[in-house]
Amino acid sequence: xxxxxxxxxxxxxxxxxxxxxxxxxxxxxxxxxxxxxxxxxxxxxxxxxxxxxxxxxxxxxxxxxxxxxxxxxxxxxxxxxxxxxxxxxxxxxxxxxxxxxxxxxxxxxxxxxxxxxxxxxxxxxxxxxxxxxxxxxxxxxxxxxxxxxxxxxxxxxxxxxxxxxxxxxxxxxxxxxxxxxxxxxxxxxxxxxxxxxxxxxxxxxxxxxxxxxxxxxxxxxxxxxxxxxxxxxxxxxxxxxxxxxxxxxxxxxxxxxxxxxxxxxxxxxxxxxxx
Amino acid sequence: xxxxxxxxxxxxxxxxxxxxxxxxxxxxxxxxxxxxxxxxxxxxxxxxxxxxxxxxxxxxxxxxxxxxxxxxxxxxxxxxxxxxxxxxxxxxxxxxxxxxxxxxxxxxxxxxxxxxxxxxxxxxxxxxxxxxxxxxxxxxxxxxxxxxxxxxxxxxxxxxxxxxxxxxxxxxxxxxxxxxxxxxxxxxxxxxxxxxxxxxxxxxxxxxxxxxxxxxxxxxxxxxxxxxxxxxxxxxxxxxxxxxxxxxxxxxxxxxxxxxxxxxxxxxxxxxxxxxxxxxxxxxxxxxxxxxxxxxxxxxxxxxxxxxxxxxxxxxxxxxxxxxxxxxxxxxxxxxxxxxxxxxxxxxxxxxxxxxxxxx
Lengths: 275, 360
Prior knowledge:
The structure holds two protein chains of two kinds. In chain A, 42% of the residues lie in helices and 9% in strands. By secondary structure, chain A is mostly helical. Chain A has two domains: 1-113, P-loop containing nucleotide triphosphate hydrolases (Rossmann fold, 3-Layer(aba) Sandwich); 172-269, no CATH class. Chain A is globular. Chain B is an alpha/beta fold. Chain B is elongated. The longest helix of chain B has 16 residues, at 124-139. Classes of the chains: A mainly alpha, B alpha/beta. Chains A and B meet through helix 6, helix 8, helix 11 and helix 13 of A and helix 16 and helix 17 of B.
């Protein structure tokens, strides 16, 4: 569903893979967006890069592509924390005695994890056997600064209503890709002459310029912040996501619907009562 | 009463419960004499194993020191011989011979006691019921007794505290080992509000699993009746209900959806003859108080119309997944999220971990 790599991007990606010694004669140019899915036993050095002569890590190999961490909460804490810098600035600097090297590391991060240690919290078929304390400890691993940087949070239940689902015609990946492409074009137009290219890179100043809300949408967001006990950090994230949802629908203004949908992607930010 | 020290001492010997202690009192007349009796004499009454245990413990325990320590913590000791021992509890078949109390509360100054108990993992529906019933009963000057556990118990206690009422928490651990520890603050608020935290276990006793079923006999024993709010098939709340029945106290339960496992136990109780509770007035009636007032009905004909009403009609108290709801309505996502959010903001529905939407 990602737009294809541009030539410039392809060359950048190829350079990194070349340094890592991952190119073959058969595949001298990387023309597909990379998809990296390291195992959860990975070390922080392998993730961000390092060695005596620092080689690029998984975050750089995923540059312009996707870094997917399955069972995200099984990764060691320092490994997850190491993701903060590249997520913030899109590159990673590795310092060693011999040299200091900065590799690009601008990727889309995808994390997957169970809702609780046993995996059955909220399940329709099986009862969860975890204690409140276990669940709290488990979820705390993901909270804080890392969660700050995750835009879309979705809970996916066991699929046992597939009969209902199959009745509705789903949008094909092809159609989605077209919409993404158009949304990217809108963003390219919006940020022409600016230092950024994508909604996700907007700072507070850009948000005020490009992502301001109409009266009703603003009221809705403010009411939600309060009564759903959303954290303050969620506010800017919601604005960015709402802007993107509007772009995907080719809507110039951000409507109430867009804000409402964006709010629903912050489910882990809500301060739940004990459960 | 110097003998108190020895009551406390016996309470610190694991395995000496109300029955064995009563046997000792019957033979020796008082606790002090029993404490100093020979192993042989003891073993005739409580068996050789238990006598050996007493023998070991009394080498380590200094009764006078125990009492001083308890006093230094500002805990009170209520023995069966005391006038201020809770009179309702005295009437059960095996009342604790000794209770530790944290708080300044006199059970026998008040006469309206009721317990609200339920699962440690309630749905939003159960929480809401516990909240409503506890605060309305507290307004009517009822003392609410519960187990300080997570979930329904905690919700009942904290609702009373908010209402400025009196509530009593009965522990399955010692007073110095508040369990769960996250309820420490709540325990303090209960005490500050004029209520009490009580336990029949020594102050440093850990929350042993086997402590909890006997603890439940105290919860029901302290009250005129037990209201079970959400209990699954196997639940401590059902044990409390069994004790209530045995003790001749009223058993009441709030029904729930047949699709909700958290209500299975409560629904079964009703099937077996527990009073079905739909509001505070039902509780008062079951306990023989006729309020004369009209019963409050919480059921509302959906006050919503149009798209909100349509979406609301698909949501029940046992929870529906967002994706499923989206399919049921057949709406576009934008409209769906907008209407769902407005229901949430009105406090009519709530999203829970796992992605389910519950009717409140």
